[in-house]
Amino acid sequence: MSDPGHAHADAFFLDTPDGPRFCMYHAPRGECRGALVYVHPFAEEMNRSRRMAALGARALANQGIGVLLLDLHGCGDSAGDFGDATWDGWLRDVAQGRAWIEERLGRTAGLWGLRVGALLAVVHAQTAAVAPERLLLWQPVTNGSGYLNGFLRLRLAGELLAGGSDSGGTEALREALAADEALEIAGYTLNPQLAAGLDAADARALGPRCPISWFEVTAAAGRPLPPAAVRVADTWRLQGSRVDLVPVQGPQFWTAPETIDCPALIEATLARLETPDA
Asked: What CA–CA distance (Å, rounded) separates 142 from 204?
């Protein structure tokens, strides 16, 4: 992989109807070969992935692909509280970021998503009036309901560690959300509308209308791809989508409390973009 160095990026606030959104724009180096909007992961996974997102953006920009790193409503340095964020609002943020970079570079942009950000990108690709040019998916969450259950379990674990009860399990927490009650989980206030949108997002039913490069990180070389990922990719192919499912060996940096790089993931992404049919 070429050294992405410390290429210049422009920081600014993008004015949207829902409020200002913090952005970092990495302009393409040399002739423009593409445009991408990065859609970050959920809650703490976002913070743990910031370095990889920056490294990836620099590497892509060095290959002539302009990248907009966008902080969604209530995340990072964008306006608003996380507890006010909704799924539909995040989808509007993605659309606003895409419109900005498309106007800036004069071409249809793709989306580059990580974890829940990848699921959000898939939903956008299925519902936008004009499909994105491509999807780059890093370890996508394919089932929002399952991911939400995992997030709810963080609260139960915290309650048990504090010596209390477990609030009646995930079903009781889901009932509270259904009753429009916000929940405090691992330092984040979960808006019932955000939870509902995440819960309803199921990648299997959302065959994107654009080429898809899907990168799945595995701990060891030769380890089989997760059956759930294979099933979703096969379902999308049956729906007419073009999907490349690429295994990459490396650490799960989005879960690590310390900063961890996964250079193989960036290398695989750049290599895929260099192939003639990508």
From this structure: 7
CATH number at residue 137: 3.40.50.1820
| Helical pair 144-161 and 169-178, crossing angle rounded to 10 deg | 110
- What residue numbers bound the domain in which 239 lies? 9-143+202-274
pLDDT tens-digit readout, 13-71: 999 999 999 999 999 999 999 999 999 999 999 999 999 999 999 999 999 999 999 99
Q: Is 167 among the domain residues?
A: no
The total of other beta-carbon atoms located within 10 Å of residue 166's CB is 15
In a domain, 171, yes or no: no
The residue type found at 110 is G
**Under DSSP, is residue 36 helix (H, G, I), strand (E, B) or coil?**
strand
Cα–Cα distances in Å, from 53 out to 7, 137, 177, 270? 14, 12, 31, 14
Nearest alpha-carbon partner for 223 in 252, 243, 190: 252
pLDDT in tens, 217-251: 998 888 888 999 999 999 999 999 999 999 999 99
CB 67 within 8 A of CB 60: yes
Domain count, the chain: 1
In a domain, 2, yes or no: no
Residue 130 identity (one-letter amino acid) = V
Residue 137 · residue 229 · CB < 8 Å: no
Is residue 41 a contact partner of residue 114, using CB atoms and an 8 Å limit? yes
Distance, CA of 15 to CA of 217 (rounded, Å): 35
Asked if residue 90 belongs to a domain, the reply is yes
Contacts 24+ apart (CB under 8 A), 269-272: 269/56, 269/59, 269/60, 269/136, 269/138, 269/213, 269/215, 270/1, 270/59, 270/60, 270/63, 272/213, 272/215, 272/244, 272/246
Give the residue from 72, 3, 84 showing the smallest Cα distance to 38: 72
